Amino acid sequence: MPETATDEREVAVADPGAAETAEHRLRAHVEMLERRLRKRDEQRRAMLHIMGDLSEFNKRLANQRKAMLHVLADYEQDRRRLARQTERLDNSRRAVLHILQDSHKDTLRLEASRKAMIHIMGDLRETTAEMRRREQELRDKQEQLVQAGKLATLGELTTGVAHELNNPLNNIGLFVGNAVDLIELAGTEKEQIVGELRHAMQQVRKATQIISHLRTFGRAAPASREAISLRQVIERALSLMQEQLRLREIEVTVDLGPVEPVVLGNAIQLEQVFINLLTNARDAVAGSPRKAIWISGSARSGVVEVAFADTGPGIPAGLERRIFDPFFTTKDVGKGTGLGLSITYGIIKEHGGTISVVSAPGEGATFLIHLPLAPADTKETSP
Amino acid sequence: MTTPLSVLIVDDDPALLQALPQALRLRMGGVTVETADSAAAALDRIAAQDYDAIVTDIKMPGMDGLALLAEIRTRRPDTPTLIITGHGENELVVHALRGGACDFIQKPIDRDYFVAALYRAVRAHVRNRRVKDRQLALASCADELERIVQKLEREPRAVLGRADS
Question: Which pTM value belongs to this model?
Fold first, then answer.
């Protein structure tokens, strides 16, 4: 259009008539330009407005971006925390799994143990039964051993007893012979004959006592338990050994104190204990300048202690334990069976007691026997 | 044997010391029997008196019969001593006989055997003594004869002269 306007002015210049038209035309043109300018201004203002809005929007956007960044940072942190927790959780899970596995293994092992336990219990029950059987066997054997030892003791006693029996038998023969002579003589006093016969009777009684005692001693007595007087047991053992001790000039002292010790036990077995101890003491003192045996007893708090001491050479150091072993003997071959003290030990143990030996060199041996006293209300039965 | 016999019995059993002397008195008329209950008591009696025979048990407490026998042999070597032994104690019997016992008697005592043994011992003792006496007498006779022979050799005349007268 400007070219047009310029052209019109040129026309106007060139043609003044034309100038008027041109002027009109130019005015219209200016008006149109002014309108356009206004429109453009409006547009420009609107644009400015929009620009301001845009800037505002942009600012807000920037703020939001910043907020977003924050949120993102937070999110990142959360994510990391979560990852860590997940990891931890995973570890825990794994640990729990392990524990569960272990627990399972333990359960298995426990089950195996339980089964093994049942086996062991069964075995144990069998073993216990076996033990009980063996124990019974042992007790039977012990009883047999006691009997064997008793017979051995009896055998040893017999030699002494044979001599003892020979004396009353000899005397009986003499007294009766005298009576026969007196009767044949005729005219002798009746009393004299009766006197001889009475003497003979006395000797018969003496012989009977010895024999009956030997018989009771040799009998395989059942291991019954009765209340028995320890004093009587010792006296009876002494009576069997009396002659042997007397001939060897062995002085025997018995002092059981003022109380009568009563124990629950087997009279024959306990008698054997003292016969064995007396036999040992008899042999022990054989070479001593003073031959003596002391048997002393004292009772207190339900236990009676019997000390059996001799004046022999004592027991060599180191043998104190072995002397109670079966077949252990210090005597010459054929002199002792080595059973005496082991049987003695067995009998005392079976009676709930103990036996030990104390022996200071050169002071003889002392055997200490402890036996539980019978309860006060048990009645004593004569052995 | 005109004088009554005296016998000593030694034993530690009082019943035997009652029975055996009685048996001897009944079987050996007029015998005197004394008793001792131990070897020590026996030695006391032996010191005081000479017995025709001694009878002793072997087994006694303290000094036993064998020791007593040895003691008798030194103190009264002529007195016959008899030993009483238990049955089957052969070893002791041999010991006793070697030790100078003149006989042994086993228990239980057979009275006939015992009395016979005692008589035998006493008679042997008496015979021994008589033999010894005669030996002594013979010895002194022999001495006498010897002296006479010597005297005859020295102075035959005196002797012959005496014989002539």
Answer: 0.56
